[in-house]
Amino acid sequence: MYKFFRLTHKWAGIILAVVLLNIAISGFLLIVKKDFDWIQPPTQKGQGGAVGQFITIEKLYEIVLSQDHPDFKVPTDIDRIDVRPGKAVFKVKSEHNYSEIQVDAVSGKVLSSATRNSDLIEKLHDGSFYGNWVHDWLMVFVSFALVYFTGTGLYLWLFPKLRRKRRRGLR
């Protein structure tokens, strides 16, 4: 059993090291994304106002699509709209190239147009960048592999200690 665990622990570890390194590096970048503007653009602050004063979604679409931005040409280019009522800002995210336009929720003024590298890093982290099958199958396997590595690593570390202790007790 010890030899089997040692062999599978070693070769599975070598094979999955690249995947685990990808998860670790991208995870670290996601943790610090608010600290670096090149990862995630800072959320701008609108002029303020009550939610009842916010522009309509139709007006927001009109403003974003009129920006002559290559990633916002037609309504279907908009992936999602993040509403930040406390800062009175709409963050409009594109389906393409991780682009974002931030719009003042009251005045409709464009506050920022930038690239959200954090979205790319998130896709690298969860495996969806490489394809849905990687996200849906490989990453599930990797999570089980981590549990396996923990168990076999503890066994490989503890087994020789217990064996030595048992041998000393027999003398």
Report the β-strand fraction as a percent range: 5-15%
Helix-strand topology string = HHEEEEHH
Biggest sheet strand order reads 1-2-3-4
> How many strands appear in the DSSP assignment?
4
End-to-end CA span: 25 Å
- Determine the fraction of residues in helical runs and give it as a percent range: 40-55%
| Contiguous uncertain segments of 5+ residues | none
Written overview of the protein:
This protein is α+β, with helices and mostly antiparallel strands. It has four helices and four strands, in the order ααββββαα. The mean pLDDT is about 90. It has a four-stranded antiparallel beta sheet, with helices on one face. It is elongated and about 85 Å long. It has helices spanning about 1-30, 55-65, 115-125, 130-170, and strands at about 80-85, 90-95, 100-105, 110-115. It has two domains: about 1-40 and about 125-170, no CATH class; about 40-115, Nuclear Transport Factor 2, Chain: A (Roll).
